[in-house]
């Protein structure tokens, strides 16, 4: 089975808070490369990490992460 494809708005949420990838990574205790890979769609985070990201930005999970159109079918 192929890896699922998700789009996200992490970059937008970071811009609202004016924080860098490195600052977000530090808060979530992951590497900056992990944040970059998630933002660019190269890596799908675990459910736990995705929920931590949503909680950090104080938004619902679905406001940040959405499956691509092809994954919904």
The CATH architecture comes to Orthogonal Bundle
Mean pLDDT: 91
Q: Mind summarizing the main beta sheet? A: 2 strands, antiparallel
Number of strands: 2
SSE pattern: EHHHHHEH
Strand arrangement in the largest pleated sheet? 1-2
Q: Which structural class matches the secondary elements? A: mainly alpha
CATH class: Mainly Alpha
Shape: globular
Percent of residues in helices comes to 55-70%
List strands and helices in order, with pairings.
Layout: E1 6-8, H1 10-17, H2 21-28, H3 32-39, H4 47-57, H5 61-64, E2 65-67, H6 69-72
Antiparallel strand pairs: 1-2
Helix pairs in contact: 2-3
Question: Overview of this structure, please?
Answer:
The mean pLDDT is 91. The two termini are 15 Å apart. The protein has a single domain, classed as lambda repressor-like DNA-binding domains (434 Repressor (Amino-terminal Domain), Orthogonal Bundle). It has a two-stranded antiparallel ribbon with strand order 1-2. By secondary structure, it is mainly α.
Condensed summary:
Helix content is 59%, strand content 8%. The chain has helices at 10-17, 21-28, 32-39, 47-57, 61-64, 69-72; strands at 6-8, 65-67.
Tags for this entry?
two-stranded antiparallel sheet, mainly alpha, 434 Repressor (Amino-terminal Domain), 59% helix
